[in-house]
């Protein structure tokens, strides 16, 4: 029996980042974000707002130049008008900035929430084989950091691009109208900008991937460390755990510093190129003004537009790096969303005929991906209401049989029948509705006892919860807790004893009144007395149900009326003397 995984635990392994294939062709961003009409309307409004800001912004250099020109020439009347227009522009820019920022936050938050819901829903529905193959930290990084990056990219960065382009093109046009000869100097610096962003962008791309990997590892390590706090304390591993985490976050720090340095260098570089261009303009324009070919107002305006131009060009240079980061996030999200989910089928338990619980494994062969075969021709018939125990050495494949019965995996050869129907054709929800699983690790979550029991059946009523708790003989200990059924039990039920957790797990399994109950080493954490009490509790609860017991514990075997053993990948019925021996020790 393998250790059942706690839903919130990292035991499934750290991210295997080397194995990850990020080369998957990313889905278009609009498909990933499912941008519907409402989103498009909001995006359009944002584009209009940022564009309006740009238009007003384009008036400012003109008016500022005009203002300075009138100051130089001493035209008092024109001064007042220019100040008034400038003030109006500044107020308009402030208001538009507020509106834009407010809308951006709403848009970004909405996209983030929707994407989070979607990926959460999708990941939960992915088959066990997928979860086995992916590191949990890696998945957590995709579900948190990556989607945050993506929604911010769309709602903040991408939305501002039209406005930036408009500002750049608008500034260029006005500069051409002021002095085409001088304006022609500007395009000569474009190749320099391009070169700078290309070189910088190439460095940023590799760094973005490394930062994502280090981020994922840091998330995985902190999650794992929190899960194994008791083990860390018991083995005095606090310092070693700290070192492991420290190495990862320091590596992340180094990468972020490198990325920050590149971005830090980019802005001054762009400014320097722009400043040299401005100097060249001044050089030529100085002659034009002294020769009377250009007014002082035009010169000032020209210079202001040149300065205005550096802002959108600078942010467009940043855009290259941001696109690379978003592309990486998009590829990883696409890869997860492209994975086919399990088809659970409609939950119609109430309309299904009552199941009998007969099970048959017919020539079942199974190997986990990339591993040696575990089951090599399992044949086993379990009659309705029969109680069977499956014995076998560690690693023999007992849990693998349960995993196949639950259809967490499918066999490579052979089939499993439940009530005479091939489990692969009956629909996952129809199959799983018939089975109550009590695993070794109770898989409880941090909520009340009531919520944990109700988890076993969609729409469970109060009466059903109480009945299930009574059947599992959990009512006594629940009554002794400070808030009874409403007591919150901590992560994985850590505020309960092992035996109490198992009773909650049994109640949860019984609440849907399943025809089949599986105990996968469910009594391994009991002492003899606790095990006997638990078995007493089970005797009533198991009445009329098919029971599969995976256990090494003799006392639990007493529940079984038939014992088989799994050896070399096949089922062997115990001989009468072996059976007697097992029962005697029980
Ligand atoms: N998710 C998995 N991916 C790959 N191999 C696995 C996985 N789970 C178990 N195995 C391997 O499959 C084999 C059978 O494991 P299984 O858990 O079914 O054994 P078991 O009979 O339940 O053992 P035990 O009595 O120790 O719990 C083992 O060799 C194990 O290493």
Automatic annotation (TrEMBL):
Main location, first listed in the record: membrane
Keyword Transport: yes
PANTHER family: ATP-BINDING CASSETTE SUB-FAMILY B MEMBER 10, MITOCHONDRIAL (PTHR43394:SF1), ATP-DEPENDENT PERMEASE MDL1, MITOCHONDRIAL (PTHR43394)
Species of origin: Sphingomonas lutea
Gene3D superfamilies: ABC transporter type 1, transmembrane domain, P-loop containing nucleotide triphosphate hydrolases
Keyword Lipid metabolism belongs to the record: no
SUPFAM superfamilies given in the database record: ABC transporter transmembrane region, P-loop containing nucleoside triphosphate hydrolases
Membrane topology: Multi-pass membrane protein
A cellular component term, taken from the record's GO annotations: plasma membrane
Subcellular location: Cell membrane
SMART domains (UniProt xref): AAA (SM00382)
Domain ABC transporter: 359-586
Name the UniProt record assigns to this protein: ABC transporter ATP-binding protein
Regions that span the bilayer: 43-65, 77-99, 153-176, 182-201, 262-284, 299-320
PROSITE patterns: ABC_TM1F, ABC_TRANSPORTER_1, ABC_TRANSPORTER_2
One Pfam entry name: ABC_tran
Keyword set, alphabetical order: ATP-binding, Cell membrane, Membrane, Nucleotide-binding, Transmembrane, Transmembrane helix, Transport
């Amino acid at each position: 029996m393998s250790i059942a995984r706690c839903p919130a635990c990292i035991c499934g392994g750290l991210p295997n980042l080397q194995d990850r294939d990020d080369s998957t062709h990313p889905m278009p961003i609009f498909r990933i974000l499912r941008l519907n009409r409402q989103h498009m309307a909001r995006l359009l409004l944002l584009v209009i707002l940022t564009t309006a800001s740009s238009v007003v912004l384009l008036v400012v250099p003109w008016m500022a130049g005009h203002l300075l020109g009138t100051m130089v020439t001493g035209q008092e009347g024109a001064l007042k008008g220019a100040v008034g227009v400038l003030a109006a522009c500044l107020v308009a820019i402030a208001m538009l900035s507020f509106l834009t920022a407010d809308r951006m936050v709403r848009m970004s938050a909405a996209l983030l929430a929707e994407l989070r819901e979607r990926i959460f829903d999708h990941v939960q529905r992915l088959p066990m084989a997928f979860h086995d193959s992916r590191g949990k930290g890696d998945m957590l990084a995709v579900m948190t950091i990556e989607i945050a990056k993506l929604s911010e990219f769309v709602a903040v960065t991408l939305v501002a691009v039209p406005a930036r382009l408009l500002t750049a093109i608008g500034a260029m046009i006005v500069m051409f109208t002021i002095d085409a000869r001088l304006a022609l100097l500007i395009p000569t610096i474009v190749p320099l900008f391009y070169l700078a962003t290309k070189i910088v962008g190439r460095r940023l791309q590799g760094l973005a991937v490394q930062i994502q990997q280090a981020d994922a590892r840091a998330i995985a390590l902190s999650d794992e460390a929190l899960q194994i706090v008791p083990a860390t304390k018991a083995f005095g591993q606090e310092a070693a755990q700290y070192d492991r985490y420290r190495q990862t976050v320091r590596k992340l720090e180094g990468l972020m510093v490198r990325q920050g340095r590149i971005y830090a260098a980019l802005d001054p570089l762009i400014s320097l190129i722009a400043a040299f261009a401005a100097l060249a303009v001044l050089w030529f324009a100085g002659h034009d003004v002294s020769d009377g070919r250009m007014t002082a107002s035009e010169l000032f305006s020209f210079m202001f537009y040149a300065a205005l131009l550096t802002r959108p060009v600078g942010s467009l240079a940043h855009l290259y790096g941001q696109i690379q980061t978003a592309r990486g996030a998009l590829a990883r999200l696409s890869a997860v969303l492209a994975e086919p989910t399990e088809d659970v089928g409609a939950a119609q338990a109430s309309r299904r005929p009552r199941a009998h619980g007969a099970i048959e494994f017919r020539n079942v062969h199974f190997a986990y991906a990339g591993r040696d075969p575990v089951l090599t021709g399992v044949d086993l018939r379990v009659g309705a209401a029969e109680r069977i125990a499956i014995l076998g050495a560690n690693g023999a494949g007992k849990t693998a049989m349960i995993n196949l019965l639950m259809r967490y995996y499918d066999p490579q050869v052979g089939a499993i029948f439940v009530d005479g129907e091939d489990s692969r054709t009956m629909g996952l929800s129809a199959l799983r509705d018939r089975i109550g699983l009590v695993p070794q690790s109770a898989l409880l979550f941090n909520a009340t006892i009531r919520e944990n029991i109700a988890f076993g059946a969609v729409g469970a009523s109060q009466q059903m919860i109480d009945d299930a708790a009574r059947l599992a003989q959990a009512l006594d200990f629940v009554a002794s807790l400070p808030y009874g059924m409403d007591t919150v039990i901590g992560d994985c039920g850590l505020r309960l004893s092992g035996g109490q957790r198992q009773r909650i797990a049994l109640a949860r399994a019984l609440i849907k009144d399943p025809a089949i109950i599986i105990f996968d080493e469910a009594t391994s954490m009991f002492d003899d007395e606790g095990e006997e009490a638990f078995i007493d509790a089970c005797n009533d609860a198991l009445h009329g149900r098919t029971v599969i017991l995976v256990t090494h514990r003799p006392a639990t075997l007493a529940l079984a009326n038939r014992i088989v053993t799994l050896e070399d990948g096949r089922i062997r019925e115990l001989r009468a003397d072996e059976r007697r021996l097992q029962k005697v020790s029980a």
